[in-house]
Design brief:
This protein is α/β, with parallel strands linked by helices. It has seven helices and four strands. It has a single domain, classed as Rossmann fold, CATH 3.40.50. The termini are far apart.
Length: 175
């Protein structure tokens, strides 16, 4: 699909993950569910920033925390400072196949101000669809310049979500 035209169902979705199989599986699943998924391989922080900077319309970004070369924290820093990246919305995912880091205060702040949802991988289909639908205010013909900043309205909810995901990963022995 053309990343320049939002689908009637949602803004274009960019899957930014360093894990090839996960990225392809999520893109396929979302495409089969009727979402417009960008067919660009974004496997690192630099490629994600470059794509989003030049994107013609606001996107939803399913952002793997473990985005090479390290984590997605640099991308969130740039998104905080760059107006062109602020018009996009970021849904953070944490993969259980990697150790869950002890988030610094700065990382937590960036997650709370820049991300609208936090999901655990493997992604629960219903939770993923709910997060996308919550963020999807762009429909065909609206022509808006950016997506609403839902994450800043509910920092308590995001704090609880982040703590819950980290707690589940630690209890399962994955973190």
């Amino acid at each position: 699909m053309d990343a320049g035209m939002p689908s009637p169902r949602s803004a274009p979705i960019l899957v930014a993950s360093g894990h090839d199989a996960l990225r392809h599986a999520v893109r396929r699943q979302l495409g089969e569910a009727g979402y417009e998924v960008v067919a660009v391989d974004v496997a690192g922080v630099a490629s994600a920033i470059a794509y989003l900077h030049f994107a013609q319309v606001p996107h939803l970004v399913l952002l793997d925390f473990w985005l090479p070369p390290g984590t997605a924290e640099p991308l969130l820093h740039v998104a905080e400072l760059d107006a062109t990246l602020q018009r996009h919305r970021y849904i953070l995912s944490l993969r259980p196949d990697r150790l869950v880091p002890t988030f610094s205060a700065e990382a937590k702040r960036l997650i709370h101000t820049q991300c609208t949802a936090i999901l655990e991988n493997p992604l629960d289909v219903d939770q993923l669809h709910a997060a996308i639908e919550q963020d999807s205010s762009v429909t065909a013909g609206q022509g808006v310049a950016s997506l609403p900043r839902l994450g800043q309205q509910h920092p308590g909810t995001l704090s609880a979500a982040l703590a819950q995901v980290v707690r589940r990963l630690h209890l399962s022995g994955r973190g």
